[in-house]
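Box S2. Input/output pair 1.
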Amino acid sequence: MSPESTGQNEHYLRVFWRGFRTWRGNRPFWAGLFTMMGGLPIAYFPYANMHLGNITLAMSTTAGAGSLIIGVLLITLGLTMWFHHIVRVFAGVAAILLALISIPVANIGGFLIGFLFAMLGGALSVSWAPGEPNPEPEPAGAVDSAAAGHGRGAQQPGSEFHTTAAVSQQPEQYDTTVEADGGRHRAG
């Protein structure tokens, strides 16, 4: 074992962080996080009591059940974006619609905090697209025999599959004579 091999001696937090970054990069992570953060204030504020000194201010309204449903659905959609990212467009559109519905139903969308987070999460989910894998680089030793200049234009046997020849394309020569109908076509 050489002192340069660091693969076996890595700290478990570094291994966990690398795995988390890989997991996070394969799905709309931030969209799900913002959507869940939008659902929390929408569901919480109708059932919260604020204490201002000796005064208790209850913000419960008749739409408390609607606020709870919208908040729970937004949290569920955020988790769906994380764990079932194939339906990210549906989840994003649903999050945007629920955020818009939360304005009249849930205390102005959780005092605009939940509304803004849910709208941002929905928009990020709709716009997210999975990344393309990087193309594998060519090996350093793989050189075409024609490009290497093995002289006098002779190819080695079996090299016809490895060489690429650029075919020069000449512009087509069009017939400039006018057709009988003047170049117009009739349908029917």
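Box S3. Input/output pair 2.
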Amino acid sequence: MRAPARGVHGTQAAPDPPWLDDSAGRVVRPYTACGGRTRSTVALDLLSLVTATGVRPRVPLGAEHTLALRLCAGTAAVTVAELAGQLRLPAVVVKVLLSDLMEYGAVMVQAPRFPGGGSFAADDQSLLRAVLDGLRRRL
């Protein structure tokens, strides 16, 4: 693994943008976007709502961090799952990126809200049946 590039005064230089190939897509493995880390420092749900705070981090951001922040700033709130889809990165990688941005104060995250004020339980068959029915209608 390469040491981070240093700027003129010994500060860390901004990282290069992700390597892309027109036909193949991303050339560098997704885990390099989060420095090889596989766990976020904050527990995030796929349905957690993420919003930009307007605070600009004082550290140089990587290309994926910058793009995630830009996507969060472009809407009122976006879910972790939507960000993963838009960034074309695995959700675990996006969670690590978002935990970094939370640490910098650039984004804030709210737990998902469900109808009726309750929480979703994996055994909530009425909700699962409604989702399955909706998918069947679309297909």
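Caption for Box S3: The chain has four helices and five strands. The beta strands are 20-21, 25-26, 49-52, 78-79, 107-110.
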